[in-house]
Amino acid sequence: MDPRLTRLGRRRAVRTGAVAAVVFALLAWWLLAQHGASSPAGRLSFATGLPTGVYAKYGDLLKEDLGRDMPSLEVRLQSSQGSLDNLKRLTSGTADFTLATADSVATYRDGRQPGAEGLRACARLYDDYIQLVVPKGSPVRSARDLKGLRVGVGTDESGVQLITRRLLRAAGLDFDRDITPVRVGIDRMPGLLEGGQLDAFFWSGGLPTNAVQSLGRRLPIRLVQLDDLIKPLHALGPETHYYRAAVMPVDAYPELRAPQAVKTIAVANLLVTTDRADPDLAESVTRSVMNSRDRIGQKVHAAQKVDLRTAIFTDPLDLHAGARRYYASVKP
């Protein structure tokens, strides 16, 4: 065989091997970039809410996606009393991530609570709708009609009680003197109403809320409009600008057989962490939240409202650096 042909074959083999090595390296880099060369590991504690609320259901489903996307990360869920309790857990280091309403975050921060300056957001999620629930035959047509009644107002650490207090002020009622406030959450309020121990209760949650759905299947109930309070509510001060007029459609709770949509008030939910959170972890959690929208939305309809275009609007909190990095990576 001609030696020159042998050398030519060797050079071709070397070149082919080199090209294959480059292709393999690029493929390995791409796979690592997609699946995470250093996927976050360790433990993550996520504070949710009361067992029968939307926060808890959302947390259960999100845990599955976090476990799939970050298999080396152990995710632990914490039940809580609601938004204000969640923020205390977060700033004390008991929880790493949580859910909280924008008005609760603003109240916590403006009140200069411990650690409030370190709060950061990863995403704006879905809206909570304020729901005033009464028996179907109740004479209550407005929050102004609650005077003298026994009213479920949410627990003391909940965002429900925060908005309830403000709504009653907007209605010209005193929280402590004009109603009998029953400080329990959505895990107990439906049963108390059904048992005749409550005349009405307030709830702030995504649509639909399972506890309200279940109550509506057992007892004829009605949702009371709150639209007449939006102007006096906003007049209370700048801290109320997080509330907006909203409409609960008839099909939100088909079991109630409402004749028409109910005008009410809504407030945004935020995915919250602190500036102590590792940027890689915050980026990965944010990515999982956004990618899980459709799957979670099949079981928690409120999650269908999670939208990449609005997720960055996390007033009153700045975005966490890791979350900001995620949004920059998916920007068209």
What does this structure look like?
The protein is α/β, with parallel strands linked by helices and 332 residues long. Helices cover 39% and strands 20% of the residues. The chain has eleven helices and ten strands. Strands 1, 2, 3, 4, 5, 6, 7, 8, 9 and 10 form a ten-stranded mixed sheet that branches. α2 (54-69) packs across α9 and α9 crosses α11 (321-330).
Short overview:
The protein has 332 residues and is of the alpha/beta class. The protein has helices at residues 3-35, 54-69, 83-92, 102-110, 159-170, 189-194, 210-218, 230-234, 279-291, 293-297, 321-330; strands spanning 42-47, 73-78, 97-101, 119-135, 150-152, 180-182, 200-205, 221-224, 244-248, 262-274. The longest helix has 33 residues, at 3-35.
Task: Based on the model shown, name its key terms.
332 residues; globular
> Mean pLDDT, rounded to whole units?
90
Enumerate the spans where pLDDT stays under 50 for 5 or more consecutive residues.
18-37
Number of helices: 11
- CA radius of gyration: 25 Å
Q: Structural class, from secondary structure content?
A: alpha/beta
Q: Main beta sheet, described? A: 10 strands, mixed
Order of helices and strands: HEHEHEHEEHEHEHEHEEHHH
How many strand segments? 10
| First-to-last CA distance | 58 Å
Beta-strand content bin: 15-25%
